[in-house]
Amino acid sequence: MFTGIVEETGRVAAFKPGAEAWRLVLTADTVRQDAAVGDSIATNGCCLTIAQLDGQQLHFDVLEETRRLTNFGAFQPGSPVNLERSLRFGGKVGGHFVTGHIDTTGQIVTLEPRGKDHYLRIRVPAEFMRYIVHKGSIAIDGISLTIAEVSDAEFAVWLIPHTMLATNLHARRAGDAVNLEFDLLGKHIEKLLSYRTP
Questions:
Q1: CA distances from 185 to 89, 95, 161 (A)
Q2: 3-state SS assignment for residue 187
Q3: Strands across the sheet with 154-159, in order?
Q4: I want to staple 145 with a disulfide (CB 3.0 to 4.6 A). Which of 2, 36, 40, 157 is the partner?
Q5: Rounded to the nearest 5°, which phi and psi values hold at 147?
Q6: Burial class (CB in 10 A: 0-12, 13-18, 19+), 100
């Protein structure tokens, strides 16, 4: 479980297919401290398990399904990635509860400065728009954000300067894919209501 508060922006060192899985190697500072093999790290919002530690590098095995369902396919050496360690008991919950299970990817339509803030608009596959709620929470590349606008196939959020500096959004452009995780509560309610008898 995570909170959507990014601790640092790491970098992709390598992302290559292996005999049994894709191997993702990241360089990081903050999340590497007190890390151990088997720990969970949210990587662009996707929960990954540390398979190996090597100096400043973290190694992860990535399933083909994970690569297909996320924006990992666009990774290149040097790509910035948002990183967050799993929530600890007694820790702060500054964002919202994020599981690290990506629902789908969205496409950036607009990312531009407006006054002192930045405006981010994302197009979402139609079948997922039911989870987009005005003033609701969403995780975009693992960043906990509040939905400010909703249209038929898109939603928008506002970004403060700190978010632009502390995450990989400063390197994003229109057309880029971002990982999306919708609010867990809404998905549970939908599932429970589906079992109601008419």
A1: 21, 14, 29
A2: helix
A3: 143-146, 137-140, 177-182, 104-114, 117-123, 154-159, 149-150
A4: 157
A5: -75, 125
A6: buried
pLDDT tens-digit map of 90-148: 666 677 889 999 999 999 999 999 999 999 999 999 999 999 999 999 999 999 999 99
First to last CA, the chain: 35
Residue entry with tokens 């969205």 = 106
Q: Phi and psi of 59, rounded to 5°? A: -110, 135
The DSSP bridge partners found for residue 98 are 2
Domains of the chain listed by start with CATH number: 8-85 (2.40.30.20), 104-193 (2.40.30.20)
Residue found under tokens 């995570």: 2
* Nearest 10 degrees: Cα torsion 185, 49, 6, 89: 70
pLDDT of residue 20: 86
